[in-house]
Amino acid sequence: MLKPQENELLTRTGPGTPMGALFRRYWIPALFSTSLPAPDCPPVRVKLLGEPLVAFRDTQGRIGLLDERCPHRTASLFFGRNEDNGLRCAYHGWKFDFAGNCLDTPSEPREHNLKARIKQKSYPCQEHGGVVWTYMGPPDQQPEFPHLEWTKVPPSHRFMTRHVQECNWLQGLEGGFDTSHLSFLHKGDTTLSVPTRYEVIPTDYGFVAGTGREAENGAITWSANVMLMPFHKLIATTPLGGHMWVPIDDQNTMIYCFEYSPDRPLEDDEMERSRTWNGIHAENLPGTDFAIMNRANDYLIDRELQSSGHSFTGIKGLAMQDCGIQESMGPIADRSIEHLGLSDAVIVKLRRFLLATLKEFSAGGTLPGLDPASYRVRSARFTAPGSKAFQDVVDEHVRIDGPVFAD
Ligand code: FES
Ligand SMILES: [Fe+2]
Question: How far is the CA of 72 from the centre of ligand 1 (A)?
């Protein structure tokens, strides 16, 4: 469990919060590149870390990400016209370029030159791996974009979706590193051996969580799950995969789900589970980021399927099983009323890691994950002698290099 103040610290990411300041030091996914398919296409609403924003692609293809509220009288720039290298507010015609400069105030006397005194809040954007990323922190602290393997492969090697999760980001992250739910929520298989070792090792990219099970001859089979600061998890499946839990605001999260193959196109047979929405991707209502199975319809739970034993939850697909159970904990889970057991050791340790990282950052210390090359890692499964500590054997299995990183 956490003290209420600790829970507040970890879950609040709006402007002016300590965790919000930490998140704003990293590149954050804002939307898919395909949502802004062409120059001068319609603008798109984006909400990140509690801030309402609007994204547009200008005539030259540059992406602007501006405060959604027009600085004149706060009308939404979403209704604006995207024309001739700028977004023009539909209310009185003020116009802004991709960097937030005010280009025109047609309803004002020209000689007042009001536009020179107006600057709209804007955040720099970069496109990597089919995603528009933004940096919302102090301009002089902007890091280089990290070496994320999945962003460097061709589109044919990658499959990616996103959907809104109606709860706080930390419920998502904790679910991602909660290995003991795998055999219940997703499988209903209680016969699997119980892990005997739980580790969370702080690293230069974030942390690596290890769950160890006894193997033959005193060896340990480790499942090593990588967390990249501040909200990424990499999955050691074939194809490889991962999630990012990006706060929309404190009670809503955009979860990005991706699968990729580093060196070849994804094959039809390995994508079967994803195509039928049984894997880590949710099927959305057409044209939206909202899942067809959602909180309002109890994720279309099938009680017969649940009682027949064919599904532990009666809910179809890994994505909706996770989403549903995490949302059921409330918009922001009250971690002060929990009763934790040994199998929650990774959860306890990851919270301690986040609190310690936040404390160090708030005291002026450096953050993990800002060296772009530190992200050259994958999650992994491996067996090692029981006499060796997890932190002494994990590095050689998770660190990667290769031609994909050659620029
Ligand atoms: S509110 Fe946007 S121009 Fe007036
Ligand atoms: Fe899960």
Answer: 5
Same domain, 399 and 312: yes
Quick one: which atom of ligand 1 is closest to the CA of 107? Answer: 3
For a mutational test of ligand 1's pocket, the pick from 68, 72, 76, 78, i.e. the residue with the most ligand atoms closer than 8 A to its C-beta, is 72
State the distance from the centre of ligand 2 to the C-alpha of 38, rounded, in angstroms: 36
Question: Environment class of residue 269 by beta-carbon count within 10 Å: exposed (0-12), middle (13-18) or buried (19+)?
Answer: exposed
Of 141, 169, 193, the position where a domain reaches its end is 141
Please identify, among 141, 161, 186, the residue that sits at the C-terminal boundary of a domain: 141
Q: pTM for this structure?
A: 0.97
Answer yes or no: is 164 within a domain: yes
Q: Which of 1-5, 113-117, 179-183, 277-281 has the lowest mean pLDDT?
A: 179-183
Residues 201 and 336 in one domain: yes
Residue 93 Cα: closest atom of ligand 1: 3
Q: Is residue 372 part of a domain?
A: yes
Question: How many domains in the chain?
Answer: 2
The ligand 1 site (C-beta within 6 Å) comprises 70, 72-73, 75, 89, 91-94
Kindly report, residue by residue over 37-54, the tens digit of the pLDDT: 999 999 999 999 999 999
**40: CA distance to ligand 2 center in Å?**
40
Report CA-CA distances (Å) from 381 to 54, 174, 221, 346: 41, 20, 7, 17
Confidence of residue 407 (pLDDT cuts 50, 70, 90): low
Residue 325, number of CB atoms within 10 A of its CB: 17
Domain that holds residue 73: 32-141
76 alpha carbon – ligand 1 mean position (Å) = 8
